[in-house]
Structure formats: C-alpha cells, structure tokens
Amino acid sequence: MADIKAHITGTVWKIEVEIGDEVEEDDEVIILESMKMEMPVEAPCDGVIKEILIKEGDAVDEDQVLIIMEED
C-alpha cells in the first residue's frame, strides 16, 4: 500500500481519479488550491486507487493522507 499525501496546506479543488482507477507514477490524482494557485498532487508509483479519504472542497494540511493506493 502507498499513501498519497498533500505536499501543501490548501483546499481540494478537484479529484482526478476514482476508486479502482489504475494510475502510473507521476499521474495527477488531485489538484489542490493554495493562495489562489493550483498545485497538482501526483501518484508516487504505479498502482490502483483503493480509498479516497477526502472530497472536493475539503481543507487539508501538509502531509495529510489523501488517497490510499495499492502498488503494482
């Protein structure tokens, strides 16, 4: 299992994946908004999305786990 974490404090602007989606390393999975700038969050490895712990509009803290994925 691999965790995808927020690299900044901000708001979840858009979730680009759904549970069960296959992603490759560096694919954008979430877009955070911080200080009116969009910041993409990328998958750390190839895998499958298992759980999404946030929803669009949620405020998140730096290092907060956003998505749990199963590594390939």
Task: Please give the number of β-strands.
Answer: 8
Secondary structure tally, helices = 0
Average pLDDT reading: 97
Total of domains: 1
Order of helices and strands: EEEEEEEE
Low-confidence stretches at least 5 residues in length (pLDDT < 50)? Answer: none
Strand content: over 45%
Label the CATH architecture. Beta Barrel
Rg, alpha carbons: 11 Å
Highest-level CATH class: Mainly Beta
- Shape verdict: globular
- N- to C-terminal separation? 9 Å
CATH superfamily: RNA polymerase II/Efflux pump adaptor protein, barrel-sandwich hybrid domain
Q: What is the CATH topology assignment? A: OB fold (Dihydrolipoamide Acetyltransferase, E2P)
Class computed from helices, strands and strand pairing: mainly beta
* Main beta-sheet strand count, sense and barrel state: 4 strands, antiparallel
Helix-residue proportion: under 10%
Strand order of the largest sheet: 1-8-6-3
Description:
A hairpin with a 2-residue loop joins strand 4 (28-34) and strand 5 (37-42). It is globular and about 35 Å long. It has a single domain (2-71), classed as RNA polymerase II/Efflux pump adaptor protein, barrel-sandwich hybrid domain (OB fold (Dihydrolipoamide Acetyltransferase, E2P), Beta Barrel). Helices cover 0% and strands 56% of the residues. It contains no helices and eight strands. The chain has a four-stranded antiparallel β-sheet with strand order 1-8-6-3, with no helix packed on it. A four-stranded antiparallel β-sheet has the order 5-4-2-7, with no helix packed on it. The chain has 72 residues and is an all-beta fold. This is Acetyl-CoA carboxylase biotin carboxyl carrier protein subunit.
